[in-house]
Amino acid sequence: MLSVVKRLATLGFLVVLVLGVMVPASPRFQKVPGGDSGIFLYTGWRVTEGALPYRDIWDHKPPLILLLMRLGLL
Predict the structure, then answer these.
(1) What is the dihedral of CA 28, 31, 35, 41, to 10 degrees?
(2) Is 45 within 8 Å of 33 (Cβ atoms)?
(3) pLDDT in tens, 5-34
(4) 3-class SS at 50?
(5) CA torsion 60→64→70→71, rounded to 10°?
(6) Residue of 48, 52, 38, 42 lying closest to 70 (CA atoms)
(7) Distant-in-sequence, close-in-space partners of 57: CB < 8 Å, separation ≥ 6
(8) Dist CA 36 CA 64 (whole Å)
(9) CA dihedral for 59, 65, 69, 70, sign (positive or negative)
């Protein structure tokens, strides 16, 4: 009987721990777009408008990331 209580207490603790970590990271509680996302959106918008990466806009990310940002904005 005591073993069942220990298992339930451990399970309850793990559930509370997981919720305590995951709930603050939930998109429901995050502002959209975040600070970094604004930079990504601006770069993707400029590429969509015809600006050339690394010539008209500087970003240290590889070209595939810029393509993904552009596709996200389309």
Answers:
(1) 80
(2) no
(3) 999 999 999 999 999 999 888 878 777 666
(4) coil
(5) -160
(6) 48
(7) 43, 46, 47, 51
(8) 18
(9) positive
Q: pTM for this one? A: 0.46
Please identify which residue in the block is written with the tokens 């005591």.
2
* Residue 41 · residue 70 · CB < 8 Å: no
SS3 57: strand
One-letter amino acid of 45? W
Give the CB-side neighbour count of residue 41, counting CA atoms within 13 A: 7
Residue ranges of alpha helices (H) inside 2-74 are 2-22, 35-48, 63-73
How many degrees, rounded to 5, is the angle at CA 65 between CA 38 and CA 55? Answer: 80
Q: Look up residue 56 and give its two tokens.
A: 């008209």
